[in-house]
# Entry
Amino acid sequence: MLIKNASQMIEAVSTALQAEGKEEKFYNLEKALEMKKELGHFETKANEVVHTGNTGFGAELVPGAIQTTDFLDIIPTYSPFIQAMTGSHGRNMNLLSEVPVIGKLPKHQIVDEATTNLMVFANGRAKTPTAKITIAQKKFFLDVDVSDEEVRFVNVVDVVATIQRKLAQSAAETQEAFMLNGDTVTAVTGNINNDDAAPTAGTYYLGGNGLRKAGLANGADVGALTFDDFLTVLALMGENAANPADLVWIFNPQTRIKALGITEFKDYSVNGRASTIVTGALSNFLGSDVFTSEEFLRTKADGKISSVTPANNTKGWFILAHKNALQYGYNGDYQIEMVRNPGMGWKIVGFYYMGQNTVNNATGGTIRKLDTMVSLGYNVTL
# Structure
């Protein structure tokens, strides 16, 4: 059975539970919600909405996750970094799409009063400057096993919520890692995630080029991390650094910990409005949002990862990226297929199409300075 949204999944699970002879309170959504409320396990949470059902008996409380029309809607809730990136092209991209990236217009000109040829604009003419990026979409696929025990002892609300949570969390982790580490190189050497061996076919990062690869082309060899290194990386952004709110810092975990020991960060932790000494987090740095991703692994001194000799991966790194540096999009919704394995449980298969590329790879136009949309500090001594 092909499932495109939560409503269809509820119907599929309900039908299967009913066919297996379960009590109505387990497979009927309204009955299941009533039972959970009676047992005291159902409370109004921040992600719940009041929904008027078609029973005519008033409003029932329905979990927001159950009301979700598309599983892709859940993904950003697991990844604040994805929420921050603004280069989305929606869900209707072709398998191979050439998408425009719009830059800023030139400054206005001063002109004298027009007395003749009023319809001829000799000065101040401007065309919206655009460059184009080719995005090739790939199918991302994951299957999840749901055992008979998980089904037998819970109701339709819990089964659907469990499946949604597992699929959405895995998809969010995959997309975040893809956006950060994407590299299409398949040769024996050269892929930034697998520098000394050929990548395994189907590995998530082969779907398109991401931020780390773009940053390595415009990076700074850091060494012992100091506050000046952040200023160096910031300076590499050129005019794209004019508005700090347009930028994001992304650390790997070990580099964030190292940065917390820098004097300037210590001063901020004492004097900042959200004390880092209390929260352990850097929410804003030099006017830009800060994210830490566990998908950023330690690297060799050149900013690439060795799979043959993992002991060489001892260095940290961080990225500074414009929020529009990464261009990405989807085709359609997150689709799910459910297959019953008698006596064992269900096989849940989730898949969707997604593609990405960075502004650095744009052609046919100018968008400020293309080589300064992403910068990177690598070879950080940890």
